[in-house]
Design a protein that fits this description.
The structure holds three protein chains of three kinds. Chain A contains 14 helices and four strands. By secondary structure, chain A is mostly helical. Chain A folds into two domains: about 240 residues, no CATH class; about 35 residues. Chain A has a two-stranded antiparallel ribbon with strand order 1-2. In chain A, helix 5 crosses helix 7. The mean pLDDT of chain A is about 95. By secondary structure, chain B is α+β, with helices and mostly antiparallel strands. Chain C is an all-alpha fold. Chain C is built from 16 helices and two strands. Chains A and C meet through helix 1, helix 10 and helix 14 of A and helix 4, helix 5, helix 11 and helix 15 of C.
């Protein structure tokens, strides 16, 4: 059994080396931040029960939301095209059709009352810097502001798709798509989905001039965005492999914890929406994962059979050699 | 003897197991050679049929090949009888209509612009309403049926699907399947 | 003109023209290997199989890879990984095999050191093996450039900067190697050429030399016993297989090889499908950006020990230490002054030298990965000194070794 002892020695040294080079070293290189379950503990809980009908009046009226935000699903187009909006405000105010299902209601309420605070951008927008956040806060419509805010949130939740119908690409486009592009196309359920730019899916063009015109629009938008944020947010096509699920979810939950002073806002997604965003990034950057698991299972079974037959053959051959 | 035959058997058994792995690997290798999904997706071209003018040949592109689109005028539709297909000997009226695609109230010739003889691109002559292939003198009429050899058959018609005022090349439809069944074209 | 007779079979026809029976005898059925060996002797076959996996997976990667700085990253991470049928499989196999091959190389190397398989006529096997290690290192480095990720770019930047030779400031040489001021199109293309053509040819040639160097001295055995291959092979062929000290390469040695390979491939494919981040570093999934250095840059694990010998010292001293580390292993047969070609366990102080060297290289590897701060920096410094010290001590330890 000398051979087993030798195998044990080799295995131990290999595993020790692996442990030191991978888990041990990486724990010293990367901050490890635990998820807080998207609880947003720093934001106040909602105390009032919202009325969607009242909320609709506020959103369309005294809340002045539709002055900047489109709501496609309610037939309200955006007041400006994305490029002009970005050049005016820095970012393109998001369409609110699915805000109610993608974002946490506590977060939405806090955002309406004080955007820079909810988005964790007060390090950039504060009295000292003199910079004001592009979205003005809601000062109330004359009644109980908490009730009014709860009403508006209830309205947004009423027009959004139900949770089960929220697809990964919808979650991504709503939560991330105004700043982050994904230039990889991807296949899902037999359909080829086009690349995503900050101003929408990239269409296919018959004439080169139309394609160049679209790309110019995208570049203009990206210039405005870079000016506003200080840097262009990275393309996320391969982020699922370069950052991994845990980093992405905890980063989205609290960007400042990883990159203090970053211009990326806390986007305030719900836990389920965060899962859908990760699923979208997997569909784009690791689309073969299911096939890989399937083939992997079969290959492992085959390799065991291969090894067994090899062992049996060796035993036969060595029967009269020992 | 028994030992060596059992050893021989074990060796062959192991070889067979290894062979299974080799075959599986060959399958994976074959799949890696397959055309990519993006190549196959690019195999569809949509044409807007409302944009064409009568008796004016427009060359589109489908799967890297030139596609002739020729809108038929009333005159062209009326002169079918005059053109004899020397090679088929069939009544050209029936053949012509079978080769054309009806979109709305109009008839179109949509075919692959490569001569069925050796693959050159024939030129269209609107004055005489025929195609002349400069390479070896082959000629086709205004529905791309052969009127002078050497081409062995009329210009091939690609799989198509009529969708309102548009045609999608690369997708099949009952109309296209009928063309195949009638022998109007071979599969492209 | 040799005399040809009418062939009795296809085998006979080929045999008369190519001498296949003789080839079979010389290369396989009467290539005699000692029987007194353990599974570590199969590492050579494991390396051959792994190299084969690299070649085959490389062929399919080569069908779709684009060596252009604007296209390279997406040709790998979009086209190959997500479009090509089983493209992801070839990429995973290639990446994991490139990493695991070095684990096996190190096991193979240290087996040779332990059993004294570099002395007494086997020096050329050792030297050709070390040349193979250098060739594989160059192949791994050039290959790592190709995905053109952040790690590719910055590793390329840092390693080519080494050629400025510290205080000599040979920046012209660095620019000549790169073909540009920084790693750019010229750099990528030439390392593509090296990776795909030149270095593989060199490796194939060196493998031939390595196998050739093995023939005359024969394969070693667990006790370092000098075997009379003539006599023992006669015993075997006469029918006394159990008492013969030798076995045939084919099928005796090969069946044991295949058993080890079978078990190895279970471990290998587990890594390919389920545990591959160590071989495909996440940082390299960021496209190369010459204006942004990653927070942590580190080489692949198999270069870490060498990297750590460079790091703790000032520029010029570090470069000298680094050069020393690359070359010193070649000199092992000549620095070992003892005539004993037996396992280290029977070689007095050399036994301790062996385990100290192995452990020191693992410590260097670990310290090469962690950020060079605080206690890690100190440990790395002393580990590097220990490495140099061990090699200086070797001639003295072995000179006074009792003859076995």
């Amino acid at each position: 059994m000398k051979e087993l002892f030798i195998l044990a020695v080799v295995t131990v040294f290999t595993l020790v080396t692996y442990y030191l080079v991978e888990p041990f070293a990486h724990s010293h290189m990367h901050k490890h931040i635990e998820s807080k379950g998207f609880a947003y503990a720093d934001l106040p809980a909602l105390t009032k029960k919202g009325d969607a009908a009242r909320g609709k009046d506020l959103v369309m009226g005294a809340g002045a939301c539709t002055g900047c935000h489109g709501i496609k699903v309610a037939g309200m187009p955006a007041p400006m095209d994305p490029v002009t909006a970005a050049q005016s405000y820095g970012v393109n105010p998001p369409d609110l059709s699915n805000a109610g299902v993608v974002f946490d209601p506590k977060f939405l309420a806090a955002l309406i009352k004080n955007p820079a605070h909810a988005l964790m951008l007060e390090h950039k927008y504060n009295a000292k810097s003199g910079k004001t956040f592009p979205m003005t806060q809601f000062y109330g419509a004359g009644g109980d502001m908490d009730q009014e805010v709860a009403d508006m949130v209830a309205y947004l939740q009423s027009i959004a798709v139900p949770k089960e119908k929220l697809t990964p690409d919808m979650a991504f486009e709503t939560a991330c798509g105004r700043c982050h592009a994904i230039h990889y196309e991807y296949n899902l359920d037999g359909k080829l989905h086009p690349a995503w730019t900050q101003i929408g899916e990239k269409p296919s063009f018959k004439h080169k001039q139309d394609e160049l015109a679209f790309e110019t629009k995208v570049l203009d938008y990206q210039d405005a965005l870079t000016k506003y944020l200080g840097t262009l947010p990275p393309d996320l096509s391969m982020y699922i492999r370069s950052r991994g699920e845990h980093y992405i979810k905890t980063f989205v939950e609290d960007p400042q914890a990883y990159l203090k002073g970053t211009a990326m806002p806390r986007v305030g997604v719900t836990a389920e929406a965060a899962d859908k965003v990760v699923e979208h990034l997997e569909n784009v950057g690791d689309s073969k994962r299911h096939i890989r698991d399937e083939v992997g299972k079969n290959v492992m079974i085959y390799m065991f059979i291969f090894a067994i037959f090899a062992i049996l053959w060796k035993k036969e051959v060595w029967r009269d050699l020992h | 003897m028994k030992n060596s035959s059992r050893r021989g058997f074990m060796g062959k058994a192991f070889g067979a197991v290894a062979g299974v792995g080799a075959v599986a690997s060959l399958y994976a290798m074959k799949r890696s050679w397959d055309p990519l999904p993006s190549v196959k997706a690019a195999g569809f071209t949509t044409l807007d049929m409302s944009a064409y003018k009568e008796n004016e040949l427009v060359v589109e592109k489908w799967r890297g090949k030139p596609i002739f689109v020729l809108k038929q005028s009333k005159e062209m539709l009326a002169t079918e009888d005059k053109n004899m297909s020397q090679l088929t000997g069939k009544s050209t009226a029936e053949m012509d209509k079978k080769r054309l695609i009806k979109v709305g109230d109009d008839y179109f010739l949509v075919c692959v612009g490569l001569c069925t003889h050796l693959g050159c691109i024939p030129g269209y002559r609107p004055e005489t309403k025929d195609f002349l292939c400069a390479c070896h003198g082959g000629m086709y009429d205004d529905t791309a049926m052969v009127i002078k050899s050497p081409p062995p058959r009329g210009l091939d018609i690609p799989p198509f699907k009529v969708d309102g005022m548009k045609i999608v090349l690369g997708e099949t439809s009952p109309e296209y399947e009928k063309m195949l069944a009638d022998g109007v074209t071979l599969k492209v | 003109m040799a005399h040809f007779t009418k062939a009795t079979s296809l085998h006979d026809w080929l045999n008369q023209r190519l001498g296949i029976d003789t080839v079979r005898r010389v290369m396989a059925t009467e290539y005699w290997i000692p029987k007194n060996i353990n599974f570590l002797w199969a590492m050579g076959m494991v390396l051959a199989i792994t190299f084969g996996l690299l070649l085959i997976s490389g062929i399919f990667l080569l069908m779709y890879y684009q060596p252009n700085i604007h296209l390279a990253f997406d040709s790998v991470n979009y086209t190959i990984m997500q479009e090509v049928g089983y493209g992801w499989l070839w990429r995973h196999v290639h990446g994991v095999a490139a990493s695991v091959v070095f684990l096996v190389i190190y096991i193979h190397m240290f087996t040779g050191i332990y059993y004294g398989s570099y002395k007494k006529g086997r020096e050329m096997i050792w030297i050709s093996g070390m040349l193979l290690f250098v060739a594989f290192s160059a192949e791994a480095f050039s290959g790592y450039m190709l995905p053109w990720g952040q790690m590719s770019y910055w590793a390329g930047m840092v390693i080519t900067n080494l050629f400025s030779m510290g205080g000599l400031h040979m920046d012209g040489l660095v620019e000549w190697i790169r073909g540009d001021y920084v790693p750019a199109q010229a750099f990528l293309n030439r390392f593509f050429m090296l990776h795909v053509l030149l270095i593989p040819l060199v490796i194939l040639g060196l493998i031939g030399l390595h196998f050739g160097a093995l023939r005359i001295p024969h394969v070693n055995n667990q006790d370092g016993e000098e075997i009379d291959f003539e006599a023992e092979s006669k015993k075997y062929l006469a029918g006394d297989k159990a008492n013969s000290k030798v076995i045939r390469f084919m099928n005796d040695f090969m069946s044991k090889d295949m058993m080890v390979v079978g078990i190895y491939l279970i471990f290998f494919f587990y890594l390919v499908f389920y545990h591959y981040d160590f071989a495909m570093d996440p940082v390299n999934f960021d496209p190369a950006n010459g204006l942004k250095t990653p927070t942590h840059i580190y080489p692949e694990w198999y270069f870490l020990w060498s990297y750590e010998i460079l790091r703790p010292f000032s520029t010029n001293v570090g470069l000298i230490a680094f050069a020393f580390a690359q070359v010193i292993f070649f000199l092992l047969p000549f620095l070992d002054r003892s005539p004993n070609a037996v396992p280290a366990s029977r070689r007095g102080l050399f036994k301790y030298w062996f385990w100290a060297m192995l452990i020191d290289m693992i410590i260097l590897t670990a310290m090469g990965k962690v950020p060079p701060e605080g206690v890690f920096s100190t440990i790395g410094f002393y580990a590097a000194l220990t490495f140099i010290g061990l090699w200086i001590a070797l001639p003295f330890i072995t000179k006074f070794e009792k003859k076995v």
